[in-house]
Amino acid sequence: MTEDGRGGRDDEDGRDDGGGERADGGCRADGSHRPDGGEQAGKRSAVRSLLRLWPYVRPVAARLFGSAGVAVLASCLSLLIPLVLKWLVDGPVARHDPAGVWLGGGLVLLLGVLEAGLFGVRRWLVARPMAGLEAHLRRDLYQRLQRLPVAFHDRWGSGQLLSRGTNDLQILRMFLTFPLVFLVVNSTTIVVGFAILLTQQWTLGLILLVPVVPLVVLCSYFESRYSLATRRAQDQIGDLTTLVEESVLGIRVIKAFGRHRSQARAFRDQSHGLRGTELRKAALLGDLWAVITGLPDVALGAALVAGCVQVSDGSVSAGTLVAFLSTALTLRWPVESLGWLLSLSNEAATAADRYFEVMDTPEPPDAPRQDAERADGVERRAGGAGTADGIRFDGVRFRYPDAPAGTLDLLTGIDLHIRSGETMALVGATGSGKTSLTTLIPRLYEVSAGRVTLDGADAALMPRDRLRSLVATAFEDPTLFSASVRENVLMGAPGASDEELLRALAIAQCGFVHDLPDGVETQVGEQGLSLSGGQRQRLALARAVVGRPRFLVLDDPLSALDVHTEALVEAALRQVLATTTALVVAHRPSTVQLADRVALLSRGRIAAVGTHRELLAGSAEYRWLMSGGTDERSAA
Ligand SMILES: Nc1ncnc2c1ncn2[C@@H]1O[C@H](COP(=O)(O)OP(=O)(O)OP(=O)(O)O)[C@@H](O)[C@H]1O
Fold it and tell me: How many A from CA of 410 to the centre of ligand 1?
């Protein structure tokens, strides 16, 4: 049974019914949707990875170093306590002097309070700057993601990007706040502590130093294995995030097809994998911890025995042995914590690697603004270019950057002229490349060869923001954002007046907006899912036309509308299309009727251009498409 009580396509014992679809729950479990950093993790230097954070750390370095200084001071104060104990045992206690014992006790208490106070100051010094640093890293990552091309987002799983912007950045902030400082503090404490031990009783001090060499060797062995496991775990978190995100966004499909069990199973498998990696990390950490605590404890036992022998033969005072052992015990935590701090540093180095993998992805070059302003001379607004040339495709070839090697170009030589003020319909079989062709106009993808010109200006030489202020697009999939209707529509023309907004809503037949609880201020919810498909499509259309763009690209803009609304939208759209140059992807004769001429896309080329009537008369493929054919093989 499904959770809503009906029999579903996932059977009772949770086995997949076969369906043959994505048993991995929609996430490519092989990790092909993100660069595999596992190999590099073994080779890279953790220190070098972490040093790359310096530009972000520099502005808060004074506070960071200050907090480390305060923590070193606090830690050194704790090392004074054994010296007070030595004085207490050899002096007031030996002399049976109660006033001296009270004084010694008071001193120890004072040192303890000072130490706690200094650690409080350390935290105060770093808390705020580190939160700012994390925000800075996150802002830069977000800006980079916005600037990277669509092809980059095609390659990367959204969960991978999400986990880098959340989990990894948290790890980095925590590392800079705590482990980094305590690596410095504890190392300093260990050095100072050993100096005190050696001056107190050098023979016993040397016994404690014996495990240092095996510890260093074991730590470096551990470091390389742990970094591999860490990288794997952080990548698995990214995959898991992708799966959760897809499940939430696709919840309607999952429920409608009763796929919740297989989805839950995919989630369980992936979280099981992550659990395995975390257990592997814990086992490695456990081994290291056993060595890091065991070897010094054996050395401490040996020093204790040797110390007792020295006290019994009178070569060392009881107070010196007490002070020596207290100092050695004070050093226990700094030594033991090293394993844990090293593991956190390793996780931070991996997080830094993952962060910079995105930040290092080169942005496509953009044309210098001043050249473009001079060169293109294109009017921004509709109806503004009297002698303009419209849109031209000259010998345009295109293949997706992530297309498998050896596949043929999708577009193999497009020559098409959409005259200024003209509306051209683009017709072709499913998968023939219509949407791909339209994305080349606002340069969501770059042409592989040839060029696209807008009123004679090469689109490739225009800065993207200028180009995109000239070209407005309504996509086949009308994406809306978690914002008000007004904000969603005005994305197409920030700063447009209320009049313009209402005009665009009227053209797109968005009268329903006025019946929403807060009118144009109504929040449309995540992805606009609170609206119907047709309503979303109309809002996307309003967004495209609100800025009266010079060039308009509409990808099957009326597909989700009922015939009556379609007729109303068409009538209003005609007014807009009359004042702009437009390319409209069309699947139905009713949409084709909006256009002055029609271009037929077939086998990567424009096979025919003419009026609807001319193509009906002259092209068998066009006739077949307009009669409702959808099979791409037959069309090709
Ligand atoms: N991001 C991408 N990476 C690689 N290949 C892609 C990508 N997007 C689309 N394709 C492929 O390009 C081909 C053309 O897709 P496109 O969406 O342009 O066709 P279309 O003519 O608009 O189809 P439809 O009429 O169904 O909307 C398809 O084979 C598709 O699999």
Answer: 9
Better-predicted residue by pLDDT, 315 or 438 = 438
User: How much distance in Å is there from the Cα of 473 to the middle of ligand 1?
Assistant: 17
Domain boundary among the residues 311, 333, 359 is at 359
DSSP conformation letters of 534-574? HHHHHHHHHHHHTT-BSEEEEESTTTTS-HHHHHHHHHHHH
8 Å CB contact between 164 and 238: yes
* Least confident span in 30-39, 218-227, 273-282, 565-574: 30-39
Indicate which atom in ligand 1 lies nearest the CA of residue 556. Answer: 27
For position 14, what pLDDT does the model report?
A: 36
How far does residue 430's CA lie from ligand 1's centre (Å)? 8
The whole-number average pLDDT for the span 289-305 is 86
458 in the same domain as 393? yes
According to the model, what pLDDT value does residue 526 have?
62
Residue 370: its pLDDT value, please?
52
* Residue found under tokens 């016994």: 207
* Same domain for 457 and 505: yes
Could you tell me the distance, in angstroms and rounded to a whole number, from the CA of residue 431 to the centre of ligand 1? 5
Q: How does DSSP assign 15-68, residue by residue? A: ------S-TTTTS-TT-TTS---HHHHHHS-HHHHHHTTHHHHGGGHHHHHHHH
Q: Report pLDDT for 450.
A: 93
Residue 66: burial class (beta carbons within 10 Å; 0-12, 13-18, 19+): middle
135-170 residue pLDDT tens: 999 999 999 998 898 888 888 888 888 888 888 999
Quick one: tokens of 411? 């577009």
Q: Of 359, 383, 400, at which residue does a domain stop?
A: 359
> Is the pLDDT at 434 greater than 90, yes or no?
yes
- What is the distance, to the nearest Å, from the Cα of residue 587 to the centroid of all Cα atoms in its chain? 36
Alpha-carbon gap, residue 49 to 178, rounded angstroms? 18
State the pLDDT at residue 415.
Answer: 94
**26 lies in some domain:** no
179 with 311, same domain? yes
pTM, two decimal places? 0.70
Measured CA distances, 410 to 116, 396, 419, 473, 608 (Å) = 68, 10, 24, 21, 17
Ligand 1: which residues within 6 Å by Cβ? 154, 400, 402-403, 410, 428, 430-436, 476
Q: Which of 11-15, 495-499, 517-521 has the lowest mean pLDDT?
A: 11-15
**What CATH number did the domain enclosing 517 receive?**
3.40.50.300
Summary mean pLDDT of the chain: 81
Report d(CA 26, CA 461) in Å as an integer: 39
pLDDT band at 387 (very low <50, low <70, confident <90, very high): low
- Using CA atoms, how far residue 28 sits from 24, 87, 160, 166, 585, in Å, is 7, 67, 12, 21, 31
Amino acid 120 reads: G
Cα separation, 215 vs 515, in Å, equals 72
One domain, residues 499 and 567: yes
User: What is the distance between the alpha carbons of residues 294 and 286, in angstroms, rounded to a whole number?
Assistant: 12
Instruction: Give the position, in ligand 1's atom list, of the atom nearest the Cα of 437.
Output: 18
Determine what percent of the chain is predicted with pLDDT higher than 90: 19
- Assess if residue 450 is contained within a domain: yes
Q: Is 83 within 8 Å of 325 (Cβ atoms)?
A: no
Task: List Cβ neighbours of 614 (8 Å cut-off, separation of 6 or more).
Answer: none
